[in-house]
Amino acid sequence: xxxxxxxITGANGFVGWHMRCFMSTLDDVIEVRTADRNTFADPKxxxxxxxxxxxxxHLAGVNRADEQELLDGNILPAKQLIExxxxxxxxxxxxLSSSTHAEEPVNAYGNGKAGAANVLFEWAxxxxxxxxxxxxxxxxxxxxxxxxxxxxxxxxxxxxxxEQTTVNGNGQLELVHVQDLVEEMFAAFKKGGSxxxxxxxHAIRVAEAEAVLQNLWHTYxxxxxxxxxxxxxxxxxxxxxxxxxxxxxxxxxxxxHSDERGWLIETVxxxxxxxxxxxxxxxxxxRGNHFHRRKVERFFVLQGQAEIRLRKLFTDEVxxxxxxGNHPSFVDIPTLHTHSISNIGDSELITLFWxxxxxxxxxSDTYFEPVLR
Length: 373
Description:
With about 375 residues, the protein is of the alpha/beta class. It has helices at about 15-25, 35-40, 45-50, 65-85, 110-125, 150-160, 180-190, 205-220, 230-245; strands spanning about 5-10, 30-35, 55-60, 95-100, 130-135, 140, 170-175, 195-200, 200-205, 250, 255-260, 260-265, 275-280, 285-290, 295-305, 305-310, 320-325, 330-335, 335-345, 350-355, 365-370. Strand 6, helix 6 and strand 7 (about 170-175) form a beta-alpha-beta unit. Helix 4 (about 65-85) runs parallel beside helix 5 (about 110-125) and helix 8 packs across helix 9 (about 230-245). It holds the Pfam family Epimerase.
């Protein structure tokens, strides 16, 4: 496939941010442009955004507002996008993030999503262009906004802070992890064709989802164990929980058992298979400067002095942890954070690394990105 120019509307939203993260891992994407509310408010800015694009992920819209806003806030951006594409004579493939609410619209949100799909279908038909309408169930994942994006985001926020959760009813959910979703949206583009695509998810009751999250957190923080991560859905829920953690809580110092023979410390207790390895790092050397989309990874400093740095993708804040082998400590690396470890001491640094999966160079889930820019 030739290099692509990609546009993402609603790029600062939950799915939009994850789409940017995924796009940054692809070799066949040459440019990613983003559009926010300010872009749509200025026709010239919107035209500059659209001009020359091969694909537009239209993720902009409104999902919480009064009824009229829900209707207009989803249809109007689609119409503005069409007007802009016509002004600059550009016919990219447009992929809309719609909702299962639009399949049988019984509320303003569903009607708004259905209306957006209708105007884009008409534009594609009239212009010989491709339009793909992704009908999406409940989306969850790391860094979702609690009390807004999903009930899973709310549960995660409350559980990691020790707050009381509330299960209102016990309806059936169909959950799709946001990184799986953005991957599926791009796969739909590569496959070719147009029309509706219904994204399938994992069926689970609300109360069961809350109970699974509670159990994962209890295993991790109370029992001090990494839970069973062999199931992809459970791993995604666990990563969502870890994403809701506050930065001050990411570093841990297990109890060190010492006697006349020396010392002993527990490094990893895991409920499923993984890979463990140890490395030495010379003074002044830095390892890492990459991120992972799904991998659960632990950096455990056993000897020497280290500085671990994290930076969430597309943000500027760098979080720093200083670890000392005299008090062996570890940091579990959150997904979609580029990270590095540096030897800041005068002697050799010895670090144990653990990952929930065996390293496969063909599927390493490792993407270069400097922490410090």
